[in-house]
Write a structure and sequence with these properties.
The chain has 371 residues and is of the alpha/beta class. It is built from 12 helices and 16 strands. A hairpin with a 5-residue loop joins β13 and β14 (299-302). It is globular, with a radius of gyration of 23 Å.
């Protein structure tokens, strides 16, 4: 596999020692990754259909699409977390098949996901170097690992203590630690799957600055987002060289930076599913699917309508309609009939599904299979 020496300039400018990279023998950059004819389904649900995707040395790519477009599944396959049903991945022309994230990391591909679930009982520096510990004759060099971690955190989030336990950090700070782990991974390709979502403007700017430095020295970055131009992710619009838009499990378009703007991306992201996004349609009883009426809060949603609600107390508002938590003081109407949802099983029979905010904690049974 052809390799090229990596310049030391970007990490020297951030205080990361040259000895760290010599320890890991980091000096090679993948020239090009190609994913061709990728298919993936979960049961009867076809998630990806004949998808082609590529990323080259030093390139910064935005992979965009609405929720359910298939972009995260595609990157999970590239990151080794999922396997494709059909298709191939080649690196510098050589076909590879990843059976685990460890295989992808060995190939130089490191993914940071939005729903990061780190080992909470480790310290920050221990997690960042997990599986890649610096040691001499089998003895861990904790001071070196802590120093390298402090150098990166000092440029992004100096308030995070490298010796703190992950369990004591907020969800946002744990996400920053995950990104710092990617910086120190020595990867040739870094995938950020909504990893900067909910971060404040200041750390986002610092992270992007580091990625710019890395890109100039051959490291490729893939930004994955479904809300690319309406929050703090708007900044990659200025640094991405290429934009790939997915829709319904296929690539709907691919554009160079000079041919895109924010409005154009918004238009391309919209699906043609026929769903109307209403800004306040008039209540019509025969079209109303769900209506909640109480002294504290009332709302309704019509057939084919997507209703957005913001503010505090959202879980308390919607959980009773899904049979979870205490019942509302008011009434719930489904297709015009008053209902009382006793438990989640009753809600499912009525056709009401609920996706909790913390899906990893409250939305799955991690010790059970899918059968």
């Amino acid at each position: 596999m052809p390799r090229r020496r990596l310049s030391v300039k970007w990490y020297e400018s951030y205080g990361i020692s040259h000895s760290f990279f010599l320890h890991y023998n980091i000096g090679g950059i993948i020239v090009k990754i190609k994913m061709k004819g990728i298919y993936k389904s979960f049961g009867a649900d076809n998630v990806l259909t004949n998808v082609d995707f590529s990323v080259s040395e030093g390139e910064t790519v935005a992979l965009l699409g609405e929720s359910g477009a298939g972009k995260s599944t595609l990157m999970s396959i590239l990151g080794g977390a999922e396997s494709a049903d059909k298709g191939e991945i080649t690196i510098d022309g050589a076909p590879l098949r990843f059976r685990s994230p460890a295989d992808a990391i060995k190939a130089g591909i490191f993914a940071v996901y939005h729903d990061l679930d780190p080992v909470s009982d480790l310290k920050v520096y221990e997690y960042i170097f997990l599986g890649r510990e610096i040691s001499t004759y089998g003895i861990l060099r904790n001071r070196s690992m802590k120093t390298e971690t402090a150098c990166v955190l000092g440029k992004i989030a100096p308030e995070i203590d490298p010796g703190a336990l992950l369990s004591g950090l907020s969800k946002v700070d744990r996400r920053i630690v995950g990104i710092c782990r990617a910086f120190l991974s020595g990867a040739s390709v870094i995938i950020l799957d909504e990893a900067m979502k909910s971060l404040a403007e200041e750390p986002v700017q610092r992270i992007l600055k580091m990625f710019l430095s890395m890109g100039c020295n051959g490291t490729a970055v893939v930004f994955v987002s479904n809300n690319f131009v309406s929050n703090n992710m708007k900044d990659p619009l200025n640094i991405c060289s290429r934009f790939v838009i997915m829709r319904d499990g296929t690539v709907a378009g691919e554009y160079a930076r000079e041919h895109v703007n924010a409005d154009m991306i918004r238009r391309r992201l919209r699906s043609d599913s026929g769903i109307s996004y209403s800004k306040g349609s008039r209540f019509v009883s025969r079209y109303c699917v769900l209506k909640v009426s109480s002294s504290d809060c009332s709302f309704y949603v019509n057939r084919g309508e997507v209703l957005g609600i913001t503010g505090s107390g959202l879980s308390e508002l919607f959980m009773p309609a899904a049979g979870v938590g205490k019942p509302l003081s008011g009434k719930i109407y489904l297709h015009g009939k008053a209902i009382r949802v006793k438990d989640p099983a009753s809600a499912i029979k009525l056709g009401i599904a609920f996706a909790p905010r913390d899906r990893r904690k409250n939305g799955i049974f991690p010790d059970m299979n899918t059968m």
